[in-house]
Amino acid sequence: MTIEHARISRRIAAIAESATLKVDAKAKALQAQGRPVISYAAGEPDFVTPSNVVDAASAAVLDPRNYRYTPAVGLPELREAIAEKTRRDSGLDVDASHVIVTNGGKQAVYQSIATVVDEGDEVILPAPYWTTYPEVIKLAGGVPVEVFAGADQGYKVTVEQLEAARTPKSKLLIFVSPSNPTGAVYSPSETAAIGRWALDHGIWVMSDEIYQNLVYPSGSAAPVSGPPHAVSIVEAVPELAGQTLLVNGVAKSYAMTGWRLGWMVGSADAIKGAANMQSHLTSNVSNISQRAALAALTGPQETVELMRQAFERRRNVIIEELNKIDGVVAPMPEGAFYAYADVTALLGRSWGGVVASTSLELADLILEQAEVAVVPGEAFGPSGYLRLSYALGDEPLLEGIQRLQRLFH
């Protein structure tokens, strides 16, 4: 250990910077220098927050009730609205007392894992995974156990793979559908099989449902009368609710990434423990953001549906154009707003006089030669892949892919 690391805790010193935010920051720095960089790095919708949400926040600023501390676990009316959304979209009839409002989905992820994972517990982590999961698992004292599914499996793990990874130390499974970074959506039968496996072996599940309403008709969404959504693991296996923590938020579906409003839903004992933690960690979320989220969940949803339709259109364009590049395999994502391309056939070859042997090197090459920012597969698991967010405007989206087509022609 270096002298510098000895000055701070080993656990904090071991945390890696968020790869997606790092690439996005580099792209923005180059843009600030005047370079015409097109960035597919950040998972952030380019749309503005719906006007009814902004209006609710504006009114909240003028309401003295919001100038004071409120319950650490969230405003009662917002917790009830979240419980109603959970009933509607996750198929779980839950009381508002089983809801905690958090500062964004990341806090919900951290608190969920920290609530159930003890030192040395193993957490089964399907890969490709969101870059934050392994860092949070290690921060909580757990041990990430990666289970990889490639493009040939549609980036979806099987029960057989999970069982092969299970040991007496297995405590928690991370389940994400739709997935960041792949956009994969587990079908109802696949979800049910994984849920029954977890139930049979007494393994906790943290189900990240932040993208549950960003699915497309051609995908694996359950047939519903309202907006399409991915089947929740507790909807597929209701008996699993007692050992499942749901995390969600308004960031993605409502274009509210900067408002920092998420939540977690779980059993009484888990929520009690997480609430105690939050009371010391952050106390309540900004009341202005809570009022805004209440308007988002209970107000008109037409704007949200228009955003979803735009993502679907962009998905179709980016996948069609990526697959025109010889050596790129980009399966059709069924949810979220990411394309996850297998680029192993591009590695070890010379492009513009430079040979990239890893997807990390390939991403650097692309940024320098094509002025396009993508996130390498090393941020999400094995090398050989690139993640491209299509949550950007239609014109830059197409222009960026055309730059890649010219580079790899």
Per-chain topology:
Blueprint: H1 3-6, H2 10-13, H3 19-32, E1 38-39, H4 51-61, H5 76-90, E2 99-102, H6 104-116, E3 122-127, H7 132-139, E4 143-148, H8 159-165, E5 170-176, H9 188-200, E6 204-208, H10 233-236, E7 244-249, E8 262-265, H11 268-281, H12 287-298, H13 302-322, E9 338-342, E10 350-351, E11 354-355, H14 359-370, E12 372-373, E13 375-376, E14 385-389, H15 394-407
Parallel strand pairs: 1-12, 3-4, 3-5, 5-6, 6-7
Antiparallel strand pairs: 2-8, 7-8, 9-14, 10-11, 13-14
Helix pairs in contact: 4-12, 5-12, 6-7, 6-11, 13-15
Description of the structure:
The protein has two domains: 3-48 and 303-407, Aspartate Aminotransferase, domain 1, CATH 3.90.1150; 51-298, Aspartate Aminotransferase, domain 2 (3-Layer(aba) Sandwich), CATH 3.40.640. 41% of the residues lie in helices and 14% in strands. Strand 13 and strand 14 form a beta hairpin. It is α/β, with parallel strands linked by helices and 409 residues long. The protein starts with a helix and ends with a helix. Helix 4 (51-61) runs antiparallel to helix 12, helix 5 runs parallel beside helix 12 and helix 6 packs across helix 7 (132-139). The protein has helices spanning 3-6, 10-13, 19-32, 51-61, 76-90, 104-116, 132-139, 159-165, 188-200, 233-236, 268-281, 287-298, 302-322, 359-370, 394-407; strands at 38-39, 99-102, 122-127, 143-148, 170-176, 204-208, 244-249, 262-265, 338-342, 350-351, 354-355, 372-373, 375-376, 385-389. Residues 219-224 have low confidence and may be disordered. The strands form four sheets. The protein has a seven-stranded mixed β-sheet with strand order 2-8-7-6-5-3-4, with helices on both faces. It is globular. The chain has 15 helices and 14 strands.
